[in-house]
Write a sequence for this structure.
């Protein structure tokens, strides 16, 4: 179920997670594809700027950590996807 | 993250500095390019610096290009050992040939074999990683094609080393040795390194400039590169049959190379125009400058092969390829790769839990920028010295290059030691300061 309040809460939490190379928030870069809450679990779907990115595992861990801290007791699941692949056109800001 | 990439880089920089110091100190001469002293230094720089740099970088990049883990990662350390030992023996063999070392020159052939083993290990790791994916874009394709050229370069190099050492006795080959040597150099520098650099940089430029990738399999470069290499391979065979035909086919290969450079330059220009990152970092600018040297070298090479019997023109073209294009590109990309690997090692594990710096916080471009400029200017002076046949000017340019490379190596070291990272986030709880020349923690291999 989409939850706008939850989306805002997660976006705020992830605004502090920066892509190490670009130095911009992963939310502003458009790397977060979706946030959905099902039962007691928050599911985050995200991507990285390129498939095979060496920082992918760290970014996934960081997202899990920040979202968990933001939503409190809920379980957090983070899925990494490349469908669709990220492109610079998905950015919400100018680099 | 490949455990040995930093070790490859450290060794490669040491080889580059030792090569530049040797030239500056008076080894080698412009008047006889194929003199043993020159060959020792050329191999020290091309294999020791560029070869190890490419191997180390590819161990890191190919898994990224292929979106999979590196296959046979345990071969990386023995390959490095074989390459360093092999190069050492080969260099000693050249010095023995020139009468500088009182040892048997047969060690050259042992050195050649060790180099062959080392490069075969690298080829096995990279090729199996790329073909593990059913579909690979132009980057992976060009890396694979480049490996084919590397294979032929190794075979030719081993035959030459065995001939010079007196281990192999094939009169027909010995007769054509001088004619075949430029093909050995061309296949290594153009066929392997340049083709690979073009392939990898398609992805790197797109990533660093935030530009749409131009990596579709229908890129005309995907056809032009194999054609150019096929022409070079054919020219090698024709050298034994008909020298005139061999020359014609060589001209075709070099013109194809110029076409490839033109197509590549056009693609990079389109990426540059379409980029979302308006303020480029230093590594992107140095990469673009290196591309200018590639274009200049290609023009000189076409002129040298087509219209001139003047060796200086061809020598200047190869010099610009080695120092301006490949070394410039390599030094520039190291300025990004080393901080990035350092960031992954140090801050990746605590990301999201602690405040961490950005990759760009690990460098200070104000310190490095003048040295990159100095390096490129000194390469232009070096090329001019080759064209005018001035040894003193060439050595002076080399000392300036040496100073620039040493200063940049210091910047790499500072990035590695986190010297520029803001104090309050330099070493957050849980982060471990990285080892200087090897990766101490591994994520995935």
């Amino acid at each position: 179920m989409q939850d706008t309040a939850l989306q805002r809460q997660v976006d705020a939490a992830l605004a502090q997670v920066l892509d190490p190379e670009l130095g911009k928030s992963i939310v502003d870069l458009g790397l977060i594809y979706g946030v959905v809450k099902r039962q007691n679990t928050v599911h985050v779907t995200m991507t990285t700027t390129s498939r095979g990115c060496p920082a992918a595992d760290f970014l996934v861990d960081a997202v899990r950590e920040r979202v968990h801290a933001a939503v409190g007791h809920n379980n957090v699941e983070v899925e990494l996807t490349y469908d669709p692949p990220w492109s610079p056109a998905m950015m919400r800001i100018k680099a | 993250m490949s455990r040995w990439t930093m070790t490859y880089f450290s060794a490669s920089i040491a080889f580059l500095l030792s090569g530049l110091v040797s030239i500056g100190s008076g080894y080698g001469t412009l008047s006889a390019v194929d003199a043993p002293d020159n060959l020792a230094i050329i191999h020290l720089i091309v294999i020791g610096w560029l070869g190890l740099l490419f191997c180390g970088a590819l161990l890191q990049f190919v898994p990224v290009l292929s979106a999979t883990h590196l296959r046979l990662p345990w071969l990386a350390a023995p390959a490095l050992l074989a390459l360093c030992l092999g190069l050492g023996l080969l260099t000693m063999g050249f010095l023995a040939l020139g009468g500088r070392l009182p040892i048997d020159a047969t060690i050259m052939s042992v050195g050649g074999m060790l180099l062959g083993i080392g490069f075969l290990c690298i080829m096995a790791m990279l090729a199996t990683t790329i073909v593990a994916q059913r579909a690979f874009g132009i980057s992976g394709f060009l890396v694979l094609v480049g490996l084919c050229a590397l294979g032929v370069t190794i075979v030719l190099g081993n035959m030459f080393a065995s001939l010079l050492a007196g281990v192999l006795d094939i009169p027909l080959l010995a007769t054509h040795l001088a004619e075949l040597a430029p093909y050995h150099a061309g296949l290594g520098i153009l066929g392997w390194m340049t083709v690979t650099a073009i392939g990898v940089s398609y992805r790197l430029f797109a990533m660093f400039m935030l530009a749409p990738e131009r990596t579709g399999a229908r890129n005309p470069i995907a056809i032009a590169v194999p054609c150019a290499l096929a022409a070079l391979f054919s020219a090698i065979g024709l050298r034994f049959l008909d020298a005139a035909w061999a020359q014609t086919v060589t001209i075709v290969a070099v013109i194809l190379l110029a076409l490839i450079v033109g197509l590549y330059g056009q693609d990079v220009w389109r990426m540059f125009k379409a980029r979302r990152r308006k303020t480029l970092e230093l590594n992107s600018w140095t990469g673009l400058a290196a591309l200018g040297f590639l274009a200049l070298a290609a023009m000189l090479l076409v002129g040298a092969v087509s219209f001139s019997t003047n060796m200086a023109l061809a020598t200047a073209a190869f010099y610009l390829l080695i120092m301006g294009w490949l070394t410039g590109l390599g030094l520039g990309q190291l300025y990004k790769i080393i901080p990035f690997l350092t960031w992954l090692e140090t801050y990746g594990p605590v990301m999201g839990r602690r405040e961490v710096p950005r990759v760009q916080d690990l460098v200070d471009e104000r310190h490095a920028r003048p040295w990159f400029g100095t390096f490129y200017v000194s390469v232009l002076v070096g090329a001019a010295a080759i064209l005018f046949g001035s040894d003193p000017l060439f050595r002076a340019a080399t000392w300036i290059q040496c100073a620039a490379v040493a200063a940049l190596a210091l910047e790499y070291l500072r990035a590695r030691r986190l010297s520029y990272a803001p104090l309050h986030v330099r070493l957050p709880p849980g982060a471990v300061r990285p080892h200087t020349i090897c990766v101490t923690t591994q994520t995935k291999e």
Observations:
- The longest helix of chain B spans residues 311-346.
